[in-house]
Amino acid sequence: MNTSTDLPDIPLPPGIRSRYVDNINGLRMHVLEAGFETRGRPCLLLLHGFPELAFSWRKVMPALAEAGYHVIAPDQRGYGRTTGWDANYDGDLNSFRLLNLVRDALGLVSAFGYASVDAVVGHDFGSSVAAWCALVRPDVFRSVALMSAPFAGPPALPFDTADAPAKPAPEDPVHRELAALPRPRKHYQWYYSTREANRDMHHAPQGVHDFLRAYYHHKSADWKANAPYPLKSWSASELAKLPTYYVMDLAKDMAATVAEEMPDTVAIAANRWLPERELAFYSAEYERTGFQGGLQWYRCGTSGAFVAELQTWSGRTIDVPSCFISGRQDWGTYQRPGVFEAMQSRACTQMIGCHLVDGAGHWVQQEQPAEVSHLLLQFLKQRADCDIR
Q1: pLDDT digit string, tens, across residues 307-333
Q2: Region of 217 on the Ramachandran plot (φ > 0 left; ψ -120 to 50 alpha; else beta)
Q3: pTM of the model
Q4: Per-residue DSSP letter, 345
Q5: CATH of 12-155+308-388, one of 3.40.630.30, 1.20.1380.10, 3.40.50.1820, 3.30.450.30
């Protein structure tokens, strides 16, 4: 892997700098930073998802810094210019489990000299990390903004089983049923857990740049068929209603799936939220690193290997102020039936805002950065009011 001195500059807006922080839970962490000019500011931590980078926060960081915050956005473990992680498919998954990602976030906050941050903000898979940060260390992460991926709470422990016959954990039939549909399908998270997934995307026939262009387009509001609604159940017949970037055709890999929705040259030229110059940075980084680091996060989830550890917090809720922000055209809000509703009714006890932003699909902070910045600052003011009361 290249050293930092070999890497090209990042096309950042004024007021954001790139730097490295050593010895963060075994990582040399690459961080984007805004609002660093003066000391003593309250801190915000921004956590990206897949397949993104700290760079995905470039459009909201200046507004948050201008409002008086010190804003920190790392390339998370497995991504970008952060090093110290193992990209080997056969390596130990343990370092990519959710609680170690929380430890990464905690270490970074501490390295910058903060005992707490005003908010941790997470998008996509970063939303899961942010949720667990707030659940496990509410003293440090004093509020949480979840974006594009709602949180249902920790997994439940088996209950009232002392005098009942032991029952083996039931196999989830949904994957077998998806494969048996008249149009055979498979779920993307289980595909992402296969050995082939990284190779399929890293060596996509269309190249990494065009793969990412099609992938980002397909999940954005620019793809006009994104008109999400709640699904009734976690069943093959319901999941089959999801777009192919979530529930794929059984015989196709992700590169072939999104290639069918590649925008034409006119649409690419007209794209203002992800122009070619900015996409070129993403594609260069993923050409260099591959995708396996991010895919390891999915494998931690689908393997079930770390559920017992997370059950330590069974029954606990997120009790710090919270909000949810997603694109109105984002299927991510509904991809797990019932979770959006459970987040609001049970998992978060102080949810003071739940917003679906029109004109945004999955990449909400890139597609509609002004509205997302406004909603985040509104939330931060509301959470401060909660502290006063």
Answers
A1: 999 999 999 999 999 999 999 999 999
A2: alpha
A3: 0.97
A4: I
A5: 3.40.50.1820
